[in-house]
Amino acid sequence: MGCDAFKRVKLIYLAILLLFGMGSVLYYSYKGASDFPEPEGHHDERKRDHDEPVEYHDDSGVFNEQNIPNHASRNTQCSCLKTSKSYNLEDFVNAAELSEVRRRREVEHQKHLIREQSPLQQLLVARPNSPLMYPIQGVRAAPLQETLIPGLSVHAHNREHYQVTLSVTNGVLAIKNSDSDGKVEGQKEKVLSLSASRLDTLNGLLKSLTYTSSLYRIKGGDLVHVTFERYSATFPIVIQQTPIPNLSDPGQDINSQVTITTKTFLRYAQLNRLIESIRAFYKDIKIIVADDSFKPQPIKGSNIEQYIMPPAKGWFAGRNLVVSQVSTKYLLWVDDDFLFTESTKIEKLVEVMEAMPELDVVGGSVAGNFFNFKLVYEEGEDGGCLSRRMGNYQSIPGFPDCHLTGGVVNFFLARTDSVRRVGFDPRLQRVAHTEFFVDGLGKLLVASCSIISVGHQPKGQATGEEKKVLDQYWTFRIEKQEEVKMKMALYYFKNRLKCFSP
Amino acid sequence: MGCDAFKRVKLIYLAILLLFGMGSVLYYSYKGASDFPEPEGHHDERKRDHDEPVEYHDDSGVFNEQNIPNHASRNTQCSCLKTSKSYNLEDFVNAAELSEVRRRREVEHQKHLIREQSPLQQLLVARPNSPLMYPIQGVRAAPLQETLIPGLSVHAHNREHYQVTLSVTNGVLAIKNSDSDGKVEGQKEKVLSLSASRLDTLNGLLKSLTYTSSLYRIKGGDLVHVTFERYSATFPIVIQQTPIPNLSDPGQDINSQVTITTKTFLRYAQLNRLIESIRAFYKDIKIIVADDSFKPQPIKGSNIEQYIMPPAKGWFAGRNLVVSQVSTKYLLWVDDDFLFTESTKIEKLVEVMEAMPELDVVGGSVAGNFFNFKLVYEEGEDGGCLSRRMGNYQSIPGFPDCHLTGGVVNFFLARTDSVRRVGFDPRLQRVAHTEFFVDGLGKLLVASCSIISVGHQPKGQATGEEKKVLDQYWTFRIEKQEEVKMKMALYYFKNRLKCFSP
Asked: How confident is the model over A316-334, as a mean pLDDT?
């Protein structure tokens, strides 16, 4: 398996360290703090320890546990709410399979960390009174491409001889212009050593220092260690295959910007009323419908796409299907029993999105109902803790009726590319909504605008055939115990949670 | 619009700077280089300029243009290949609309940059011989959450008075434990000033320095500027809403790991032969079929899901549909006229994926055909340059038959979540394949394994009804001029390319 297997092992090791106490960072930091060099001068470690108790005390003190930045919270134990509404998710996994399921979950989590972790997350500290000048951020290299490292030089005087050693892990170093009277050892190797009798010769060599990553990867990083006498520094290189943009042409009007998407199951009467109401306000906008009815009926109307799914395939499968068929920058999600009114102003939702490009989802209200919630997520060694709290984070400057939040109702405008990135899990067949925002936690920036609303068709007024259909429909909508169990088991494995407080 | 609008303006400004010459970085770097402080001591700027021509020369020299790291290449002009096969993409946009289309493209690109750019990409340099100790990487804060900043301290002596000033842009600073005899000004403001008569008092205050971002965002960053006398430093803080994992349970066997996906149009005879061949080797694996035939016929067989699309909806729309319905960690893509053989070993492809978690797509060969290609992409002010070159990057250690590359044939195993993140553009109706790997450039790590292959059903042997159907089928598969034009126009807008050399 060679060096790649070795790298994998190393990464798993790093992941385990990250999981158990940030040992590596603490060690590195403490070390970094305790043996940092003094101002120009030559007294040795022992001597310094006694001469400069204050400094020594300072530095060792800087790195006690509570000073590690909060991404280290990944490694602590998160605590679940002690309310009756807090589910312990292990209770929803079959007891007989639990240990095996837990094992598989941790294996997948380790692989997830290998995909996500990078040396660029490790805590690094610039040490004081060092003659080294170096780039601490902004050095980027394309995979396998030789790249100049800017900003590296030594600023020390009165030496008869100057020597600098550099080392990297995931690539090789080289000096492009070595035709000077300086000495270069280790060209195109992981460890490079430079020496010269004059400072400007040494810095001349450093000016043409290059890095070439040795593994083709889409994203990653490396750390460069530099040593000059008793001084040392470590700085990061971002390795990245530049991603190509994926822009969406908004065209000239709402029809080229937004597609209306919904899913239906049996309720054609409701769906047709919805479509009628849409056409009253948006006569040309495209409508995409996913249909998993037992006896699919063709939906009449212009610019409507109907997709027939296997019977009763399910709610999120249908949502994910329509999302996959959208070609506009935005999609508007509506349930099949909603009703467009004068207040259903899609343009307003687009306006908010365009004013704040970081936004991914903007919800409105359904017959006055907002259902805005925040998702509070803590990582933990043995799984994360998630709780849902009604409310918002803050309002959007310039849009007092719009607030940043964690999740919204079933009526929202969303960036098509953002929703695809998160997806609606097709395994959620009957009752599901919050699950989408949980899967999107840390990926979707969500807002809610109270003034944009859609109507809801009145319930319980159906008669005759329509009532029969609705009665059948509701037998599918009543959530059964095994469905709740399946959803909680998904939170346990997919989102690696140990508890959820809705 | 308040501070958010201001931030947006700033970001657009940053984006423009990034687009035109990295002006800001050059300026910052040059400044950083030219007025960096010396070792402990008190001679002033003028004096230094004359005393230390060597150092001065050094530092100004470090930052000439070609030393800016290569992400700055974003701002240069990329050049298209001068071959007959290189398309100038503007030629494929209607001349009358070109200026308006170009305008819309640049507006979308600016918004794309606002979503993607961050102060964490700017070049920062650690200056030599500074008494400041500070974290250069690894400080992470959750949005709106007060977070301790570790590793910050001053290491200077023999002052009667010590003062440090800190400033940030996107949040506020505070000292948690200010109950010492030091002086703190600007608690919970953007600029914080600390002073003390003793060094350990000052460093005691710095130990409890916290940062709180003032805007709720999913991802972002801030730069902390620290000043002590004539010494200064700048370091980054990563602001991130921790993303929740999205793990996939591999289950116990190939059936719980992989779903076979395909799309059919008219060719039921071919599809049925494919399914027969799959069942000869994988009798229980799930098969998902997207079908946009004019007269859909039910597909017989167990564990097969058929989705009926609007007639002739198209090739990539069908691919995107099946991808949206997969519930397994991996999906295997096959065309409807392929044929499974003894060498169609899905397990081998899974083995490679599991051995290298960074992988997103692993292709095989179709009847001995590989079609591996690399995509060479350069950014440019007026659009990027893309060319396709046959070949691979490097082999996968431990798997000599597998090579990392940029794109593969129509037979590949892929991570379901990765493919969803990129997607198959539903606008590509007839002939499309490379487009998926172009959209995935910088997002998908792709490999090809030569020993895993699938068969191809022989062409031109059909007779009678089947031949009639195939003749109709091929009238749709022959690419028309307007389809080529549409594809090139997509490259122009969506991927912001100016030229493409297939």
From this structure: 97
Please report the residues numbered 399 through 428 in chain A whose beta carbons come closer than 8 angstroms to any beta carbon of chain B.
404, 417, 420-421, 423, 425-427
- Any CB–CB contact under 8 A between A389 and chain B? no
The residues near B90 (Cβ < 8 Å, ≥ 6 apart) are: B98, B102, B492, B498
Contact yes or no for A260/A288 (Cβ under 8 A): yes
Q: Which residue has the tokens 């950014």?
A: B379
pLDDT in tens, B293-333: 999 999 999 999 999 999 999 999 999 999 999 999 999 99
- CA-closest candidate to residue A184, choices A157, A166, A200: A166
Contact flag B25-A54 (C-beta cutoff 8 Å):
no
Residue A75: band (very low, low, confident or very high) from pLDDT cuts 50, 70, 90: low
Contact B397 A4 (CB under 8 A): yes
List beta partners, residue B209: B175
* Cβ–Cβ gap B126/A148 under 8 Å: no
Q: How many C-alpha atoms does A284 have within 13 Å on its Cβ side?
A: 5
Separation between Cα atoms, residue B38 and residue B206, nearest integer Å: 23
* In contact, A420 and B423? CB cutoff 8 Å: yes
The DSSP secondary-structure symbol of B300 reads: P
Q: Does B41 touch chain A (CB under 8 A)?
A: no
The minimal CB distance from A63 to the residues B151, B155, B305 is found for: B151
Q: Which residue, chain included where needed, has tokens 């003793």?
A: B198
ipTM reported for the complex, 2 dp: 0.85
pLDDT band at A34 (very low <50, low <70, confident <90, very high): very low
- Distance (Å) from the alpha carbon of B460 to chain A's nearest alpha carbon: 32
pLDDT of residue A105: 96
DSSP string, B111-150: HHHHHH--GGGS-EEEPTT-SEEEEEE--EE-TT--EE--
- The pLDDT of residue A42: 33
pLDDT digits (tens, 9 = 90+) for A347-401: 999 999 999 999 999 999 999 888 899 999 999 999 999 999 999 999 999 999 9
Question: Is the distance from CB of A386 to CB of A499 less than 8 angstroms?
Answer: yes
What does each C-alpha distance from B122 to A136, B14, B443 come to in angstroms? Answer: 10, 10, 22
* Residue A111, helix vs strand vs coil: helix
Minimum-distance CB partner of B109 among A133, A199, A245 = A245
String of DSSP letters for A356-394 = -TT--EEEEEETTB---EEEEEE--TT-EEEEEEES-SE
- The two tokens of residue A236 are 């990061």
Tell me how far apart the alpha carbons of residues B146 and B188 are, in angstroms, rounded to a whole number.
10
Our CA-based measurement puts residue B239 at a distance from the nearest CA of chain A, in whole angstroms, of: 10
Q: How far is CA B359 from CA A240, B370, B416, in A?
A: 15, 18, 12
Query: Is-above-0.90 flag for pTM?
Result: no
Region B216-223: mean pLDDT is: 95
- Our measurement of the distance from residue B41's CA atom to the centroid of its chain's CA atoms, rounded to an integer in Å, reads 47
Contact call for residues B149 and B139 (beta carbons, < 8 A)? yes
Q: How far apart are CA B453 and CA B451, in angstroms?
A: 6
Chain A residues touching residue B420 (CB < 8 angstroms): 420-421, 423
Task: Find the CB nearest B496 among A5, A145, A247.
Answer: A247
pLDDT in tens, B231-240: 999 999 999 9
Tokens of B166: 């800190």
Considering only CB atoms, A151 lies closest to which of B54, B62, B327, namely B62
- Residue B75: per-residue pLDDT: 52
Backbone angles phi, psi at B200, to 5 degrees: -70, -25
Per-residue pLDDT, B355: 96
- B237: which strand partners? B222
User: Which residues touch A152 (CB under 8 Å, ≥6 apart)?
Assistant: A132, A133, A134, A135, A206, A207, A209, A226, B62
